[in-house]
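Example complex used in Figure S2.
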Amino acid sequence: MTLKFNDLEVGSRIPDVVKGPLTRSQIALFAVPSGDHNPIHLDDEVARQGGLPGVIAHGMLNMAYLSQALIGLAPQRNIREFSARFQAMAFPGDVITCTGEVTAKKRVGEENIVELTLAALNQKGEKILDGSAQVALP
Amino acid sequence: MQYDAFIGKEYAPFTFEVEKGRLRMFAKATGLTDPIYSDEAAAKAAGYRSLPAPLTFAYTITMDAGQSFNVLEDMGVPLPKAVHGGQRFVYHAPICAGDIITGRQKVTNVYDKKGGALVFIETEIPLRNQLGEAVCDLYSTVVVRNG
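Predicted assembly (285 residues):
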C-alpha cells in the first residue's frame, strides 16, 4: 500500500508493526545473514562475561524491525533516509512495537517528502530505538 | 587517546557481491513476508532488477567487509568495549541481487564525553554499484565505554 502525500498530516500515525516475543532462535537466525557473529547474541555465558544478563538481540535486528513500519507506509524505493539511535537492549521474550508519526511535510526538489519520527518500544514501554525517516510520497 | 590522528582517516576500499540466497535468508530472519524479497519474478514485476536488498542490508555489506572492526582495531579498542550507538542510511538507488557493491570508510569525527569515559567514533561509508551509481550512504556511531 502506498499512501498519498495528501493522506497524511503532521501528527498522523503510521500503522504499528509488532514483533515477538523474540526468541533465542530468531536472534541466532539473524546472526548468519547479517554477518554479525558476536557471541553476545548467541551464548549466554559469553554475554554474562561481558556484563549482560544473557544474550541480547542485535541492534540491527531491532532496526530491521523498525524499517518494516516504513515499508508499511510506502515501498522501500520511496524511502530517502532512515536513522536510529540505539537506546536500550532487547532480550529474548521481549515484544517490540514499532511506531511512527509524521512530524513535517515538505517539498524537496521534485518530490513530496514526509518526515517521520519513529520508535521501537518493548512491552514495558521502554524505548529501544529512537528513529527518524524521510519518505517520498506521490 | 589521541583522537586527531584518526579524524579524516580513510580505510582500504572493499567490494561485496550481493547474493540472492543471502538476501532471502536476511528477509526470512527479519520476518519480511512481501514476495519481492524472496521471489525474483515478484521483484521484477515490482520494477526491481532482481531481489531488492532490505533497507538495513547495507549495514551487513559493511560489516561483512570488516568495517567498524578495522577502525576499532586501529585505535586499539577491545571489541567488547564497543557498542553500536546509532545508524543512519541515506538512500539513492536500490541495491539488488547480483550487484557488486564497493565502498570506502572514512572516520569523520572522534570525541569523548564524561571525561573520556565514553568515546564516540563517527564514520561514513558511501556505497556504489557496478554501474558507478551511488546506492546508499551509511553514517555510523560507535560508542566505546572505558572503565
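The radius of gyration of chain B is 17 Å. The beta strands of chain B are 14-17, 82-91, 100-103, 106-113, 118-128, 134-145.
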